[in-house]
Structures are given as structure tokens and as C-alpha cells.
Amino acid sequence: MKPLLITIDGPAGAGKTTVSRALADRLGFRYIDTGALYRAVALQALAAGVDSQDDPGLEALCARLALRFERLADGVHLLANGEDISGRIRTPEVTMKASAVSARPVVRQFLLKVQKDLGREKSAVFEGRDMGTVVFPDADVKFFLNASTEARAQRRFAELSDDAGQTLDDVTRDMRKRDKDDSSRNLAPLKPAPDAMRIDSTRLSIEAVLEIMLARIEKVG
Ligand code: DC
Q: Residue 163 contacts by C-beta under 8 Å, 6 or more apart in sequence?
């Protein structure tokens, strides 16, 4: 397989993470979870007490933030200024803060460069919201993965640990808000690139989604 840059965009709970990881494994490519980068900024902002609307505060925070992925035996970890933060970025609080800071141009600008640098070597599957539209408009293969709100909320709920303390209704409500905010923001809103292949995973298994993607990649690769 020649070095390709593959993008997978879509809303939360559409199956992007599972599919992107499996696809990267199959192809021997790197898997890059760009949502984790927004979560890292959110975590630092929460720790430093920086408001999501405080652009100068966010800009200063980003200027001090070095982000890097590291592959360990149990998967890919995210390091912020050398500290492994992978275990702390999936809480409901960080999730909502990530959505809020991701609407700020200073944050998107900072992460745009981080992501472009990560994509320079190709041979990677990038998962996010604006991979095919903004970050890598020239990607070799683009996918937009979606599913019904009910299916997506169910999946997210099933992934949560009991100590997250959220009901299915809480998850559905947060997801609707996040979908609305992510799709309606002015800057890099969540939407399919015109040349992305759209896949609805509501009634498809992971394996079925993978097969559709691999068939498409084979045509290009
Ligand atoms: O995929 P995720 O749930 O980990 O993403 C967390 C938040 O980051 C999500 O609400 C939207 C934002 N995000 C983004 O704006 N652009 C990306 N490429 C990835 C995530």
C-alpha cells in the first residue's frame, strides 16, 4: 500500500474511533485522534481556570502547550508537555469544555499547525470533524461517518463507566447540544467534504463499515 492520507469525519458516536483504529491497523498506518488534541486544550484550560471565551488566555495556554502522541504497548497515548494525559480527557466535563474551546479561532489555529505537522509523513488515518474540509482538503481518501442520534447516544452511553454518573438521557441531551454547537459554529463546522464518501453506520457492523472503506481505498491506492 502506498503512503496515503485518509480522513474520517463525523459526529460523536458514529463509530469513527473504532473504525479509524481498525482501519489504521489493517493498513499499517498511524491512527491520529484529533478530538484528543481539543480535549488536551480543554483539560489544560480547566486546570488553569481559563474561560472558554477568554481568547488571550487560551492563546497563552496554547503557546505553552507541546502535544505529542506516543505509541505504547496498550495503544496510542497523548502527552501534554511530557505528561501522559490519556486517562483524564474522557470525562463529561472535559468533553463539554472541548466542544466549547473548539469553537475559538485561536485554538483551531494552534491545532491546525499541530495536525498538519502530524500529516506530513502521510500513511495515517486522521479522525475528527474537519479533517477532509479544512485540515487536509487534499487528502487521498475521505469518509464521512454518521448514524442516527439514538444509535450514537446508545453507543456513547455503553462506553461510559458507571462512575461517570450519567443516564442515557444525559448523554442524549449532551450529544444533541454538542452536535448543534459543532455543526453551527462559523469556523470549520462539522460537515462532509464534497468529495467524501458518506457512510451511515446505524445498521452496519464495524466489519461492514471497514469493508466499504477498504474497497474505496483499494480503488485509490
Ligand atoms: O471526537 P471527540 O468527541 O473526542 O472531540 C471532542 C471535541 O473536539 C468535539 O466536541 C469537537 C471538537 N473537534 C473539532 O472541533 N475538530 C476536530 N477535528 C476534532 C474534534
A: none
